[in-house]
Amino acid sequence: MDNEQLKSNLTSSKHWLRLVFMLLFAAVLQLASLVMWVLVAVQFIFSLVTGEDNQHLRRFGHSLSTYIYDVLKFLCYSSEEKPFPFADWPAGPDVTIVVVEKNPPVPAGQSKPLTDTPDEVV
Predict the structure, then answer these.
(1) What pLDDT, in 10s, does the model give residues 63-105?
(2) d(Cα 65, Cα 81) in Å, to the nearest integer?
(3) How far apart are CA 23 and CA 33, in angstroms?
(4) Sign of the dihedral through C-alpha 25, 28, 33, 39
(5) With contact defined as beta carbons under 8 Å apart, do 70 and 83 qualify?
(6) What is the pLDDT of residues 105-114, one digit of tens each?
(7) What is the reported pTM?
(8) Is the Cβ–Cβ distance between 24 and 71 less than 8 Å?
(9) N- to C-terminal Cα separation, the chain
(10) Cβ contact 37:98 at 8 Å
């Protein structure tokens, strides 16, 4: 690399502007990490109390972890695309939990179907 190329790189506003964005996103990354740890603790307490996790928190945790990944890609020069607020917030997964009852209640007026398994084991 010659001196002219080095001088051109050092005086290029493109590199210095990226540094400003990198410092901004490094601060945002620290805040997002703190929010993630709070989310982890709240989700754990929620599952301890109710016996299952909260779907809304799970979706937000997924989108927050995707956002953190996007910020890290930008900071490591793996991506030139600036994350939120310069892009859309990452969407969480569309997760639908279906609960299937083993022995659903029988509507009034119908007889109970014969099965090989008892309703309750005593």
Answers:
(1) 999 999 999 999 999 999 999 988 999 987 765 555 556 666 6
(2) 17
(3) 15
(4) negative
(5) yes
(6) 666 777 665 5
(7) 0.70
(8) no
(9) 82
(10) no
